[in-house]
Amino acid sequence: MNKIINNKPDLLIVGSGPVGCVIAERAANIKKWNVLIVEKRNHIAGNCYDEKNNSGVLIHKYGPHYMRFKKKKIFNYVSKFTKWINGNYIVKSNIKGKLYPIPINLTTLEKFFNKRFKNKREAKKFIDSKKVRIKKIKNSEDFILSKLGKEIYDNFYKNYTIKQWGIHPKNLDKSIVGRLPIRFNRDPFYVNQKLKVMPKNGYTSLFKNMIDNKKIKICLNTSYEDIKELIKPKIATIYTGPPDIFFKHKYGKLKWRSLEFKFKTKKKDKIQECVQINFPNHKKYTRRVEIKHVTKQKSKYSTLSYEFPNSKGDPYYPINDKRNINIFKKYEKLIKKLEKKHIYFEGRLAKYMYLNMDEVIERALNLFNKLKKKYN
Q1: What are the Cα distances from residue 37, in Å, to 21, 28, 42, 275, 344?
Q2: What does the DSSP assignment read for 300-349?
Q3: 201 pLDDT exceeds 90?
Q4: The pLDDT value given to residue 1
Q5: Mean pLDDT of the chain
Q6: With contact defined as beta carbons under 8 Å apart, do 328 and 173 qualify?
Q7: What is the pLDDT confidence band of residue 156, given thresholds at 50, 70 and 90?
Q8: Rounded to the nearest 10 degrees, what angle do helices 18-30 and 203-210 cross at?
Q9: Shortest CA distance to 13 belongs to which of 323, 247, 352, 342?
Q10: Residue % of the chain over a pLDDT of 70
């Protein structure tokens, strides 16, 4: 644990990921509050953290983060702390040795079914003939079968989902696969948003700029458990970690899917043809990422990251099955009561919710606005 710099801050923030950094920045710059951030890891930026490896290649240590924005005002806010480069987010799926665009689009369908469609209407009519008629969509399997049919489901979705979640799609909420768009045009990009960007100098640099203020102090290698009796903030505490840990597993443990990463560096400008290749049906890893495609860095070397999902390790993805949803609802009631004690929960972990980065930042800004009104 680092030495505590301020044991009576105005605001105590647990976690230095996007939520913690955004609220700290707003609190220090707008309200002139003294902020103390405690972070259990040895770095800031949460899972967005990036660093240069031994070959000088900037890597995303915890998997690729594809920054995109639905709202211009959120983009404008983050733009205060970084310059941008275009986000060239092209993803393909390896099916029996052939690469197909992901998300599913017109090119994917033509290549997979070995057909040529004159237009969108003809492609939709063809897929309609493949769909499985299901009256009530109960899970992820039903969702894809009803949208794209059994062949697409079996080749692109079923085994990838089992690898990623350790759970059969019929036991997963339909929202899990519903996040990935299905297109009947030739848009090759992984995300729908027009504002697809990457911070020019990386995410760590972005969040470092965000909390570069004398009113913000940070203690790395420091867990909330170790300091919660020592630090008494004058205004409020913002907690961004898992709720079950905060409440000492009162209602049981929330399950998360974790990831393990293996990195391989080669003396080569580029190793694969796009930033990400998914492997649904073979290999133990789910995807192989060459982040250099989007960071645009100049180097003689390039690094591949291989992603192995598992059930142990740092929490990444909440598992939205009935058991976990019911447990979180119980914790949610306790979280609401804590607001009376000036303790607020926000972020992917705290809300047990999958959120894109722009959504996380927007929620952090909304929480700050709530604090600003309440503690004038």
Answers
A1: 8, 12, 13, 33, 14
A2: S-EEEEEEEEESSSS--EE--SHHHHHHHHHHHHHHHHHGGGTEEE-STT
A3: yes
A4: 56
A5: 95
A6: no
A7: very high
A8: 30
A9: 342
A10: 98
